[in-house]
């Protein structure tokens, strides 16, 4: 995938080819989507490093309360206008300006959102550019950002202990998370769906019963899958890129994540497709320390500017056009 969010980079093509060579060496081949299905052991060694197999759980499928049930998507209204570089003393914004950079938690394996651009070697994507817009409004300079690579396990602790100022990482606003951290208004509406190989016969969540499904720990995707389809066997991998490889090696029958994340995986393999309707809505928000009310209001001011001046639509067209034409930006929802 190129730095512009379209096409295939040489590195990603090489990954797909390398997987094919490895499988050929073990007597397996991909075949065409219309060809015979590949047979493997239950998962087939070797599993990705750090992967866990979660057996089916007992119980009937159920749904979860939406984030609106506790008003988790309601945030604080933007604060008064500020001059870049000159922030009110004594608060988180003054601390960030004194430090000289905004520190933001992202990852490097969510294609289209925050990934390592193989051409430049830099972190790039929709979320990365949202973070740069916040830095632009703080400093007048979008480059004054330090991106820290954090996985889903330690991103909240890093926010809570002050190691990072923000999480901008395709993070879904949930009632549970809103008890621990603060969120901006919704900056992107996603929906959890299913990714499969073309011709798989899987068309929706009901078809995942008895199937092997890949997702990532400590995500709403895993929690939703276990609740909505408890009869699935789960391969929980450390990254979404590991799920891509597991699908390509036929170690799993499907992967599930937000449609925005699945689009980034599908863009790397022409034999993959997103199927079925929405399992759950996934409203994305910027994560902020719950004590930093001033910073919450400031971030919401940046998001308001991005909606009104066309920046949001520009970034959507740049990175997420694979999902179709840009929709209207999410309307803000405030509780004060």
UniProtKB/TrEMBL annotation:
InterPro entries on file: Bact_solute-bind_prot3 (IPR051455), Solute-binding_3/MltF_N (IPR001638)
Biased composition (Pro residues): 78-90
Ranges for domain Solute-binding protein family 3/N-terminal: 101-323
Gene3D superfamilies: Periplasmic binding protein-like II
Region Disordered, annotated ranges: 36-90
Keywords: Signal, Transport
Top-level division of the source organism's lineage: Bacteria
Family, per entry: Belongs to the bacterial solute-binding protein 3 family.
Protein's name in the database: Transporter substrate-binding domain-containing protein
């Amino acid at each position: 995938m190129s730095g512009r969010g379209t096409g295939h980079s040489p590195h990603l093509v090489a990954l797909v080819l390398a997987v094919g060579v490895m499988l050929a060496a073990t007597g397996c081949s991909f075949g065409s989507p219309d060809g015979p299905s590949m047979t493997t052991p239950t998962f087939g060694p070797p599993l990705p490093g750090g992967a866990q197999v979660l057996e089916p759980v007992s119980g009937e499928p159920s749904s979860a309360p939406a984030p609106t049930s506790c008003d988790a998507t309601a945030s604080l209204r933007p604060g008064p206008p500020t001059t870049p570089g000159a922030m009110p003393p004594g608060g988180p914004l003054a601390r960030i300006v004194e430090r000289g950079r905004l520190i933001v938690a992202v990852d490097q394996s969510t294609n289209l959102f925050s990934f390592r651009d193989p051409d430049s070697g830099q972190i790039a994507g929709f979320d990365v550019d949202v973070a740069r817009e916040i830095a632009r409004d703080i400093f007048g300079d979008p480059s004054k950002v330090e991106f820290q690579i954090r996985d889903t396990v330690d991103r909240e602790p890093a926010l809570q202990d002050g190691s990072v100022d923000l999480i901008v990482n395709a993070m879904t606003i949930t009632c549970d998370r809103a008890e621990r951290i603060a969120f901006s208004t919704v900056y992107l509406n996603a929906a959890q769906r299913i990714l499969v190989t073309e011709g798989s016969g899987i068309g929706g969540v009901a078809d995942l019963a008895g199937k092997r499904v890949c997702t990532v720990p400590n995500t709403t995707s895993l929690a939703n899958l276990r609740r909505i389809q408890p009869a699935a066997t789960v391969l929980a991998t450390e990254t979404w890129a590991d799920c891509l490889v597991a699908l390509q090696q036929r170690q799993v029958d499907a992967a599930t994540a937000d449609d925005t994340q699945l689009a980034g995986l599908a863009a790397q393999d022409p034999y993959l497709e997103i199927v079925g309707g929405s399992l759950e809505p996934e409203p994305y928000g910027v994560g902020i320390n719950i004590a930093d009310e001033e910073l919450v209001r400031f971030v919401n001011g940046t998001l308001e500017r991005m909606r009104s001046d066309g920046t949001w639509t520009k970034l959507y067209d740049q990175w997420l056009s694979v999902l179709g034409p840009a929709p209207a930006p999410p309307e803000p929802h405030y509780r004060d």
